[in-house]
Amino acid sequence: MSRTVVRGGLVITAAEEIHADVLVEGGRIAALASHDSEFAQSWTESADRVIDATGKYVIPGGVDAHTHMELPFGGTFASDTFETGTRAAAWGGTTTIVDFAVQSVGESLRGGLDAWHAKADAKCAVDYAFHMIMSDVNEDTLKEMDVLVQEGVTSFKLFMAYPGVFYSDDGKILRAMQRGAANGGLIMMHAENGIAIDVLVEQALAAGKTDPRYHGEVRRALLEAEATHRAIRLAQVAGSPLYVVHVSAEEALAELAQARDKGLNVFGETCPQYLFLSTDNLAEPDFEGAKYVCSTPLRPKEHQAALWRGLRTNDLQVVSTDHCPFCFSGQKELGRGDFSKIPNGLPGVENRMDLLHQAVVDGHISRRRWIEIACATPARMFGLYPRKGTIAPGADADIVIYDPNAEQTISAETHHMNVDYSAYEGKRITGQVESVLSRGEPVITERAYVGRAGHGQYTPRGTCQYLI
Predict the structure, then answer these.
(1) Helix (H, G, I), strand (E, B), or coil: what is residue 198?
(2) 452, 461 Cβ separation under 8 angstroms
(3) Can the peptide bond before residue 296 be classed as cis, meaning omega within 30 degrees of 0?
């Protein structure tokens, strides 16, 4: 059994910060001990590998609970495969992703799940799990939900947006929520009023408003708030927990805060693009705004302060990426002359941990809150904790050595995502991943990739650990 010691660093988890050495045996964390203790000295003497983390942070590998590798959308596919996407995740300090398997209308949940297993099998550099997108709620798929929960696919995403593609009406949503309440599954919701949005899209295009910035204007913040309110009420009727994905608007956050104040099992996620980007990006000239088209859309800058406040007050619990990259050339360009045809999605799986560390530097959140919203809470929310999301005896040795003083400039020229632009091009940040272990095996060593496709394992999940 191989032994690795990570020595000299500051270990940061959601619960504490301690100066400790970390012993890894057989792919798991075996023990922690203070730097100068006899225990730690004896580990170093007998170790197969010693990693010097002096002056660095030792943090759990990130858990990105919202990615879309190879997702078919708008007549094309997300440009990252499971191989390229998980490699990029590792470069950014993320060691577990939870991707979305898609059930197509008329097909079974099992068929969609099997298709995603085939995409990911033996391709991933880091560990992965699946949520299930339900596009067709009926008696057969409701029964399948029970089976999937037993197999470790314990969360189901529904859409109040995209009529004719992923959309479910209130009746179907209620039925799925009722089933989730019975089988322990967590219902995830894309909360936008897609029926009303389609009316506004049609009217905007008829008026000659075709540029990317109108994508943000028609997907009104009030329609996100209305859908969020409606989802909360349906969940209340069903007695179901609810996790609202990619919250972007202050008004939608207010709905979540109100529900949580009443003690409801309602949770919210936001993404780096809503914390660092805005409608100013959507309005960039010469169709450059198309790079920033995603749904929910970017909002005016004043929403950012509310989202940061929500993360501090725990009205928002998780920051995931909604990583769904489309190249500007040949993919985003499909929407020239019609913003509604621009594929929706941004790249970000490689940038999340660094951007959130910059938020620590800027004073938005604490170091422990950084680890909480990026590692521990997503692991608990989706039944991966304590194997993932922490540094503690028994946990998988998913460990990141993080240099808090390194300076870098985010750029498409240096990132590892399979996409031809960066949403954060030219942004200067402090902090950078130096080395990464996944289940004790090196994936990144001193800023060099040493991992391999196929190391990453599929990880069945338990149910949400936050339900009351």
Answers:
(1) helix
(2) no
(3) yes
